[in-house]
Structures are given as C-alpha cells and as structure tokens.
Specification:
By secondary structure, this protein is α/β, with parallel strands linked by helices. It has a single domain, classed as TIM Barrel (Alpha-Beta Barrel). It has 11 helices and 8 strands. An 8-stranded parallel barrel has the order 1-2-3-4-5-6-7-8, surrounded by 6 helices. α5 links the parallel β4 and β5. The protein is globular, with a radius of gyration of 17 Å. The two termini are about 15 Å apart. Bound molecules: cytidine-5'-monophosphate.
Length: about 230
C-alpha cells in the first residue's frame, strides 16, 4: 500500500511561503499539490522547490483545450517530472486519448487523472449548461468515459467514491478533496468527510489543504491525520 496518500494542497503564491511550508511537510507521508494560483504566480519553480524537498508533485492545472494543445501541455508536465497531473473529462474522449497517447513516448509518465464535474457545481448550475443528465449521472458518465479513454483515475468528492468504485472497479485511482479531520475547521468546503471515512469509502489519495497548511505546526497536523487513519 502507498504510504503517501495525503496530498497537501500548497495554496500559497510566493516562493518564500512555499519554501517555508515544504520544510514542514513530512515527505515520507505526503505528496504535494500545486494549483493554478501558485503555478501562475511562480511557474515551474514551484515544482523544483517541492522536488528539492523530496515531495512528489500533483500538478493540478485541469487542462481543457483542443486535443493537440492539451496533450502538449500534459507532455510538458511530464517533462517536469511530476507524479500526477489532470485534465477536464468534458474536453471529450479525443482530448483525453491524445493526452494519454502523447505520454507513451515519454521516459517519465505521470498519472493522468480526469476532473468530472467540479464539486463546487450545483445541480442548478449544471442544468444551466444544458446537460441532459442529472449531476450525479453526469459524474458517473464522465468517469467511465475517462476510464475508457485510458486515464488512470478521477478527482471526485469522497462522497461519490463508493458509487464510482462499484461501476469502475478497483484498478482506477480516486483522488478526493473536501477532506476535513473532525478537529479542523470546514472553511468554505461543504459536504466534507474525515480522512478515515474517505479511505473507508475507497479513496486512494486525500487532497488536504488548510487543515495542514493553516496550522501553526503543519507536521503535527499530518501526524494527527496519520494516527486517525
Ligand atoms: O484547503 P482545502 O483542504 O479546502 O484545499 C482543497 C484543495 O483541493 C484546494 O486546492 C482546492 O482548489 C482543491 N479542490 C477542491 N475541490 C475540488 C477540486 C479541487 O477543493 N472539487
């Protein structure tokens, strides 16, 4: 079993903040997630700082573009040596396959994960886009399209994992944000689950940000979470 199932969302915007934070994240138990704000602020330096600290990187840039552009962006991520990166499933099977196939020619192949429907999306917001399915069925539909297009897994709500596991089987990674230990503030997340609940539901990787990064002692917060697991 993977001992590093906690993926810490490093949602800061400067190299100074990042350097300070990564020193406090135990790389034996955690990986790092770099999102749009940090990457747009300091670029690939963010990846280098994490790698220097011994942290594998999930580059969470959620690419969505024409197949050629999306695939080349994914290849660029691979060439930075990231462990995982992601694309929007709603870009379609041609886009997902192109991203998958371009990695065949690379010496380092990151895990390629699909974003189905953002967990911030409400049923009303989803219907506004003209979908013919309810939101839950759209998540299921896009997750199976991702699997059939050769992706390695999906980002999803921990509350969806059990259902998705039943239809997609065990050989497909489920990466879940919206995780809150019982002792942490929920912040702006709704429908949170605890780390142990997420694992019990079948989640492979837990994306956890503020309960660790906003703590006075991020390393202690990780230790508490690991004990709970
Ligand atoms: O601080 P917190 O634990 O809420 O951080 C969660 C991280 O996961 C953030 O970087 C957020 O952008 C990301 N995320 C999320 N929900 C999604 C997809 C990504 O919270 N559906």
């Amino acid at each position: 079993m993977d001992n590093r199932r906690i993926v810490v969302a490093l949602d800061v915007s400067t190299a100074t903040e990042l350097r300070k934070l990564v020193k406090q994240i135990p790389n034996a138990h955690c990986r790092a997630k770099i999102g749009k704000e940090l990457f747009t602020s300091i670029g690939p330096l963010a990846i280098e700082i994490c790698h220097e600290a011994g942290l594998d990187v999930f580059l969470d840039l959620k690419f969505h573009d024409i197949p050629n552009t999306c695939a080349r962006a994914v290849r660029a991520a691979a060439r930075w040596g990231v462990w995982m990166t992601n694309i929007h499933c709603s870009g379609g099977s041609d886009m997902m396959r192109a991203a998958r196939e371009i990695l065949e020619g690379e010496s380092h192949r990151p895990l390629l994960i699909g974003v189905t429907v953002l967990t911030s999306m409400s049923e009303a917001g989803h219907q506004e886009l003209g979908s013919i399915r309810e939101l839950g069925s759209q998540v299921d539909y896009l997750a199976s399209l991702a699997r059939d297009s050769g992706l390695d897994g999906v980002v999803c709500s921990a509350q969806e994992v059990r259902r998705l596991r039943q239809s997609l089987g065990s050989n497909f990674y489920m990466v879940t944000p919206g995780i809150r230990p019982s002792w942490a503030a929920t912040d702006d997340q709704t429908r949170t689950v605890t780390p142990s609940e997420a694992i019990a539901h079948g989640s492979d990787y837990l994306v956890i940000g503020r309960p660790i990064t906003a703590s006075d002692h991020p390393g202690d917060a990780v230790t508490r979470i690991i004990k709970e697991l």
